[in-house]
């Protein structure tokens, strides 16, 4: 997921068309490491985002807006002083490195026209945004770099600007067969992938793997392992990749199993099998969507971490409690021997004396009348020993009656907690996370006082919507609130309702819409029910299915809790491929 020199190359081509000749009307700094510039050209306004964030350095045209601080930071004031109302005259890339150069024509203090450059270095933790004058002297920078941080390159006002070190790497647009062969000679012990990265400016690991793939070479092979023929293929593969992005950009985000794995501005052939891509009309549109989704995923993970920890802790606590209850139950089931000991002591009471440790007595209840050894307390009389065993028996009997209730109660708690965790696993949107959090806060497990915000009723989020291969609409709940909506609001008597058997999972509904639901569609829905459940990684998963009219929600039941009758059971093996093959419907209403 690298913002490499190839991505920047295509972005600059896009910037040149849209921004050259544009006038800088506004400059904002909403974050300590982010600048936003409003560029006006004709009737169009473009919001240019430039970020030197250590984790997400980036540059693109954005459609989103951010709230600005009441007092602009000092770097923002410097930019306003020198380039506000200036005209963008050129946009270039330093060699093929990740350095964006925006040349701006503006007036100096003597009202003379001068060219200043805004340099954006997109280089991970070393990313920076720097303003230089026409003689390449630094006017100011977002991040100051002194001699204690770098001996080679200080970034301070008044210093000469020096480009980031190239470490003898070549511009990948300017090389020939001789220079390529020289690179191979110098990198005999280096792998093909690392050679591409270390020898050329702006080549990312994804592009290096693409070059190896098109060359038919293992990217992890060392250069010394290549035959002369393979070296020729390597060169041809390299040229082919370079030529492919010289022609035009192919902005796309790559997914595997609906999980975003990378973005690129070329068609990565090595990520075709088992991957799918979403294409965009512009590089900026792709980058904005990618970083928005990535930021959303990070925020979702951060916000869900505390809730997941709470749920996991409660689940472990109740699982341990259930285990102990079963041990107590097992122990209580052995209480019949206490009654037997009491009966045998009573039957032989005159043959026993105080002070005995054991007594060997004939078991009259055994068909063979075999003798058994009964432990006795030496400080008790035979009658007291008998009463002690009767007391233990009665205590165990009463405990057994209560234990069955405790076990059922604990099993229900475990099932409910697992349903919340399953909902958390299925959720991808922040509103779905808020629903699960809201449900947890209103459950018996939350001991904290609810705030006014927490007491507010949740606006329900939308369940997943699939279309079967035979054209039937299938809805899948991703959490208990969505399950509740599917099972109480959406269905009609002739619809088909499905749920994985004896495990937490999604409620699934097939809408009949006046048609008979064929077996193939029921099987597809069964796969969805199994996949969106705790049993998703199992095979031959039992799934119950029934007509919706046999479904009922008990009074005062928890969200997503229903009872049903007249069900049939099928066995399916869920798989990601089977789910990905189904058409998903985007509901915009």
TrEMBL record:
Lineage top rank: taxon: Bacteria
Keyword check for Coiled coil: no
Domain NFACT RNA-binding, first and last residues per copy: 463-564
GO BP, one annotated term: rescue of stalled ribosome
Record Gene3D superfamilies: 1.10.8.50, ibrinogen binding protein from staphylococcus aureus domain
Ranges in coiled-coil conformation: none
Molecular function, one GO term: ribosomal large subunit binding
Keywords: Protein biosynthesis, RNA-binding, rRNA-binding, tRNA-binding
Classification via Pfam families: NFACT-R_1, NFACT_N
GO cellular component terms, A-Z: RQC complex
Function: Key component of the ribosome quality control system (RQC), a ribosome-associated complex that mediates the extraction of incompletely synthesized nascent chains from stalled ribosomes and their subsequent degradation. RqcH recruits Ala-charged tRNA, and with RqcP directs the elongation of stalled nascent chains on 50S ribosomal subunits, leading to non-templated C-terminal alanine extensions (Ala tail). The Ala tail promotes nascent chain degradation. May add between 1 and at least 8 Ala residues. Binds to stalled 50S ribosomal subunits.
Alphabetized HAMAP family for the sequence: RqcH_B
Assembly and interaction partners: Associates with stalled 50S ribosomal subunits. Binds to RqcP.
PANTHER family per the UniProt record, alphabetical: NUCLEAR EXPORT MEDIATOR FACTOR NEMF, RIBOSOME QUALITY CONTROL COMPLEX SUBUNIT NEMF
Similarity comment text for this entry: Belongs to the NEMF family.
Protein name per the record: Rqc2 homolog RqcH
